[in-house]
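A.,

Following up on our hallway conversation. Structure tokens first:
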């Protein structure tokens, strides 16, 4: 009778452990499928771009695509040089990054090292709200507010320009850079700060010479995210920068970017399978490669600067 009483609790415990094991396996399988789904989507996008671009490159040589200085695939005298779109993308991104990276870093240093708790709790939601504004709103803000303001200082500035679009893009990217940079800086152990204070360093010296170098891997990740965000921006440059491909490195001129062209052609009436239609996939593949290069560089920077505490 005593043995039977011992067997029943053991059986119940075994059954509970078995059920727990099954639940953990189910949860693990769901998480694995979710991760596998994201990988599958990534490979599907790459496959689609590469397969469609191969059809384009059957008609256009890679040399012409990379070296021709004109991009007029929809004209009778068609040219398929990607350089005008790349130059517009690079110039607008550089203007945006010249605004977003310094300001985002300064804001992050202030919020992490100097701001009182109450100020930080108020400022961070406002920064996140700034990042949640639709990009089309930023585009019209650039066209209707920033451009007239710039024309007051530069009377010869046209109604559409990479400068106006880039400045507003920079404002739009600031929340991404500042939020990730601040998180990276706040993850630095407090004993590093205390050691710096013990040597007589000021708060500013500690922030610049101790905290920033210690969080450089996270800051590099924030910068790469900002670069990718600038390169892939669509609506701001579509509305404020103009939609005419123009090989220029002058931010005061109008130009088209890769994303602008993709939007322009996707809304048109080109027949599926035509060479003009295939250009959007070649342009998309170029944009993907540019973003991939920056992400690889960011990964290498994170590995190089990563600190283990």
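Then the amino acids I'd put at each of the 309 positions:
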């Amino acid at each position: 009778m005593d043995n039977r009483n011992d067997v029943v609790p053991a059986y119940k415990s075994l059954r509970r452990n078995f059920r727990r094991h099954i639940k953990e396996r189910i949860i693990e399988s769901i998480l694995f499928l979710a991760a596998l789904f994201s990988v599958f989507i990534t490979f599907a996008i790459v496959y689609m771009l590469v397969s469609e671009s191969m059809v384009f490159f059957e008609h256009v040589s890679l040399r012409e695509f990379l070296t021709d200085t004109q991009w007029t695939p929809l004209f009778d005298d068609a040219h398929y040089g990607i350089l005008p779109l790349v130059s517009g993308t690079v110039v607008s991104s550089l203007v945006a990054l010249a605004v977003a990276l310094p300001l985002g870093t300064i804001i992050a240093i202030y919020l992490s090292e100097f701001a009182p708790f109450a100020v930080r709790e108020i400022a961070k939601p406002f920064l996140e709200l700034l990042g949640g504004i639709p990009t089309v709103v930023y585009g019209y803000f650039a066209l209707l507010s920033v451009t007239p303001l710039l024309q007051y200082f530069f009377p010869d500035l046209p109604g559409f320009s990479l400068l106006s679009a880039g400045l507003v893009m920079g404002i739009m990217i600031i929340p991404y850079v500042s939020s990730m940079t601040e998180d990276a800086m706040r993850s630095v152990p407090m004993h590093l700060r205390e050691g710096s204070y013990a040597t007589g360093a000021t708060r500013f010296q500690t922030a610049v010479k101790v905290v920033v170098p210690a969080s450089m891997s996270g800051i590099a990740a924030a910068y790469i995210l900002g670069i990718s965000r600038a390169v892939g921006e669509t609506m701001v440059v579509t509305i404020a920068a103009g939609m005419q491909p123009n090989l220029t490195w002058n931010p005061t001129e109008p130009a088209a970017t890769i994303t602008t062209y993709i939007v322009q052609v996707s809304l048109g009436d080109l027949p599926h399978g035509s060479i003009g239609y295939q250009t959007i996939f070649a342009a998309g593949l170029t944009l993907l490669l540019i973003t991939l290069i920056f992400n690889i560089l960011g990964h290498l920077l994170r590995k190089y600067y990563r600190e283990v505490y």
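The longest helix spans residues 2-57. Curious whether your intuition agrees with the design.

B.
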